[in-house]
Amino acid sequence: MRKELHLFIIWSKGLYLQEPIIEDIKKHFTIKQIFNCYWEKQSFASRLSRFYGKKLFQCCKKEKHCGNDNFLAIVVIDQHPHYKDGINSNTAELKYKYRSWYRGGFLIHASDTAQEGASNIKALTGLSIEQFLAQYPKTWTGKRFLPLQAAPLTLAPKENLYLKLLHGFSIFF
User: Fold this and answer.
1) pTM of the full structure
2) Which of 51, 55, 57, 160, by CA, is between 20 and 30 Å from 141?
3) What is the pLDDT confidence band of residue 97, given thresholds at 50, 70 and 90?
4) How far apart are CA 133 and CA 169, in angstroms?
5) HSE-up of 160 (CA within 13 Å, CB side)?
């Protein structure tokens, strides 16, 4: 299996556990980069909706639950992806572990497949996997989070993603 890029998000209302989560992520993955993300409050729900691919309203339950302030996006390299039932069990297990630290809820997001990881990274940074790796060739130094403000949120329709996959667009490296 080839290594994959994945994304974890700690939404704003979950940031009080960022240090233990980052420390635990480092035990399982190579952290490529951590971004301190900001979406304007008036467009937060629409960005959230586009990120998840569902129509959400300004005062939606997800936005209220997760918060609409700064959040962390942690891009990781899974050196040894392991799939069960079409889902990367490495990222999924950690996602549910961290959610249990909050006693449930959805204050943590993690990509479940390499395709979702690529889509999530594109949604937050505007970069394909290849562009992301070119722009951030080194691994995270552990010293600071890079600011990511007003990032483009352009998600291609699923049909376009599948066409790219069929025509040689690589989400692996």
Assistant:
1) 0.84
2) 51
3) very high
4) 14
5) 5
